[in-house]
Amino acid sequence: MKYQALIFDLDGTLVDSVPDMYIAVNLMLTDLARPVISHAMVSQFVGNGIEQLVVRALSGDMEPNPLLTEQEISRANALFCQHYLAVLGQYSQLYPHVETVLAAFAATPKALVTNKARRFTEALLAKLGIASHFQVIVCGDDGAKKPSPEPLLKACQQLGVEPAQALMIGDSKSDLLAAQAAAMDALALSGGYHQGEDLRQYNPEYLCDQFLDIITAINR
Ligand SMILES: O=C(O)COP(=O)(O)O
Ligand SMILES: [Mg+2]
């Protein structure tokens, strides 16, 4: 294997996390007497952090409704966080073979870089029992979010590897653009939340349909 470190995204890569978010978003919308949204819409709205998810859910669209006030957004955000913490990990599941792949690379240093806020990330990892695989965890509220290269560069620095020696594994445009900006190779997973986009346009070095395919893709 030519990489000295692997960096994994969380939502849509390791975990099918939309089922919990779908419930929390719709409890929030119901509290605010707003129309509920579909599972497919929640899947599309995930990927840029919780604040963006909440604004998109309130807007019923990827584009924020310009009429939303700061006050409405912050109330919705607080309600979402309250519901999400209560439901977190109840319906979300690891994708098939995640533990097999993490174990196959047991000797390779690994980081998790997510746009999800730290308190949710840590609670979810604890429920799923996979936290111990990662020597470094960088979250969306630690600093700049992906697609900024900053969280990936921070992870490489903490793992003690050069970006060119690391591989970013993710399911969205944010992951692939962040990897490009950090001059890292990228592996795209087609089964996550790619906001309806074909990830091939971001020229990842590898494209896998299944998590298990990662092993053969990068050992070639
Ligand atoms: O919280 C999000 O919007 C997405 O998080 P991710 O970076 O783990 O995919
Ligand atoms: Mg993701």
UniProtKB/TrEMBL annotation:
User: Which reactions does this protein catalyse?
Assistant: 2-phosphoglycolate + H2O = glycolate + phosphate
Q: Which UniProt keywords apply?
A: Hydrolase
Quote the protein name from its UniProt record. Answer: phosphoglycolate phosphatase
Query: One Pfam family name from the record?
Result: HAD_2
Kind of enzyme, top EC level?
hydrolase
Q: What Enzyme Commission number(s) apply to this enzyme?
A: 3.1.3.18
Gene3D superfamilies tied to this protein: HAD superfamily/HAD-like (3.40.50.1000), Putative phosphatase, domain 2 (1.10.150.240)
Its domain of life reads: Bacteria
Per the record, the similarity remark reads: Belongs to the HAD-like hydrolase superfamily. CbbY/CbbZ/Gph/YieH family.
From which source organism is this entry?
Pseudoalteromonas qingdaonensis
Q: Quick one: which pathway?
A: Organic acid metabolism; glycolate biosynthesis; glycolate from 2-phosphoglycolate: step 1/1
- TM segment ranges: none
